Amino acid sequence: MLRLTFLGTSAAQPTIGRNLSGLAIRRERELFLVDCGEGTQRQMTKYATGFDVAAICFTHMHLDHWLGVVGFLRTLSMQERPEPLDLYGPRGLSRMVERYMAGPVERLSFDLRVQEVVPGERIRRDGCDLVPFATHHGVPSVGWALVEDARPGRFHPDRAAALGVEEGPMFGALQHGKAVTLPSGRVVTPLEVLDPPRPGRKVVVTGDTRPCQATVDVSRAADLLIHDSTFGDAEAERAVQTDHTTAREAGRLAREAGVARLVLTHLSTRYDRDPETLLAQAREEFGEVSVAHDGLTLEVPLLG
Ligand SMILES: [Zn+2]
Ligand SMILES: [Zn+2]
Question: In which residue ranges of the chain is pLDDT below 50?
């Protein structure tokens, strides 16, 4: 399973219909958040994501992207959560935690593990890596890519049988990439009975940023790109001044990177009720695009 739920899709201030930034990503047994704006925990309740968060990945330390974490951690502590929680983010994360969480959150019922990351490192999780990449937002910032491990290639039982492997535990071992030894002494390797490995899924979340090369590079052949799309053509100048991206620019970048699908988010309040303008402008550049709304849930299917 790889399921994303948009918890907040508004830039800078919340509106009646849109909360501040937050995205839940559930992959198999682990739940991740990317950013945690004010009100995120209520959105998690409303959209039933569960509270069993394993890690929160921050894109940058602008207030509208993290203020919700203070209250959320307090709730987890009141529920006497025992499991440690990982916080990952760019430079400034540790200072924020020291300043704002030591006081108001009192003592937590669990370990808070805080890690400031640098672009390009890979954070190992269960069956996938979380990969921070450089973005351009005028303050220390990163985007996040979730990159699944490659899956073993398709297994061909007929080939295994032809080599003399009996159906049973040896089939299982070969499917998991382990060589087996037949009673005759002949060793059968996975290469003989499996197709080449198939790439896992890849989801990229930019956070706030100008369009940049690192996003293109990390997004090559991604299943899903979630990009800053704060403004439309009419505010192209303003997008440059405030280090954000227009819908059209996001569309162009998606095309260049060859992603399967683009979702626009972090909308300026002026597009709150009418995101169609942004959608139309992005669509002139890239066909497979939609605009996020709070509560939007997307499943990323396994292909092949
Ligand atoms: Zn923002
Ligand atoms: Zn920002």
Answer: none
CA of 279 to the centre of ligand 1 (A): 19
Cβ contacts of 34 within 8 Å, gap of 6 or more: 22, 23, 25, 56, 57, 58, 59, 144, 205, 207
304 Cα to the center of ligand 2, angstroms: 37
Q: Tell me whether residue 129 is one of the annotated catalytic residues.
A: no
Number of H helices, E strands in the chain: 10, 16
What ranges make up the beta strands (E) of the chain? Answer: 2-8, 22-27, 30-36, 53-57, 85-89, 112-116, 123-125, 128-134, 142-148, 180-181, 187-188, 202-205, 224-228, 262-265, 289-291, 297-299
Q: Give pLDDT tens digits for 4-59.
A: 999 999 999 999 999 999 999 999 999 999 999 999 999 999 999 999 999 999 99
**Predicted local distance difference test score (pLDDT) of residue 304:** 67
Task: Give residue 60 CA to ligand 2 midpoint distance, Å.
Answer: 7
* Structure-derived torsion over alpha carbons of residues 216, 222, 224, 226, reported in degrees to the nearest 10: -20
The answer to whether the predicted template modeling score (pTM) of the entire model surpasses 0.85 is yes
Which two three-digit tokens encode residue 95?
């200072």
Give the pLDDT of residue 53.
98
Pairing of strands 22-27, 2-8: antiparallel
Beta bridge partners of 228: 265
Whether the Cβ atoms of residue 247 and residue 264 lie closer than 8 Å to each other:
yes
